[in-house]
Amino acid sequence: MPDDASDVARAYYQAYVEKDRAALEALIAEDFQFSSPLDNRLDRETYFERCWPNSERIRACRFKHLIPIGETIFVTYEGEAIDGKGFRNTEILTIRDGKIVEVEVYFGWSLPHPAPEGGFVEANGLTG
């Protein structure tokens, strides 16, 4: 199991790409908490029930930013689903003693971006 916090973070995402639940279980602490715009501090068991099935849809993960600050790792990555659709997420991982104790996810970007370069998308779906 990796010891360096950045290596732990990389191994976390790689477990999803490789569909390696055992590797992921080894990285996640017993007191793990997971939050996202859709999830509020899920415990380890609920995380595996709710989030792990997403691994079946993930083909690739490429890091844009991986910034360690003490026990905290700020990660922005671009993922690719098995249907070829891309997405970008930013996540904040807290790692203690080689285990992930908390993940906060911020998502919502589709790739390619639906807005034209220099433009925007209105809430009603119109572009400008």
Pick out its properties.
six-stranded mixed β-sheet; single chain; globular; 128 residues; 6 strands; alpha+beta; Nuclear Transport Factor 2, Chain: A
Account of the 3D structure:
By secondary structure, this protein is of the alpha+beta class. The chain has a single domain (5-111), classed as Nuclear Transport Factor 2, Chain: A. It has 3 helices and 6 strands, in the order ααββαββββ. It has a 6-stranded mixed beta sheet with strand order 2-1-6-5-4-3. The protein is globular, with a radius of gyration of 15 Å. The mean pLDDT is 92.
Indicate the topology.
Layout: H1 5-18, H2 21-27, E1 28-36, E2 39-43, H3 44-50, E3 58-69, E4 72-81, E5 86-96, E6 99-111
Parallel strand pairs: 1-6
Antiparallel strand pairs: 1-2, 3-4, 4-5, 5-6
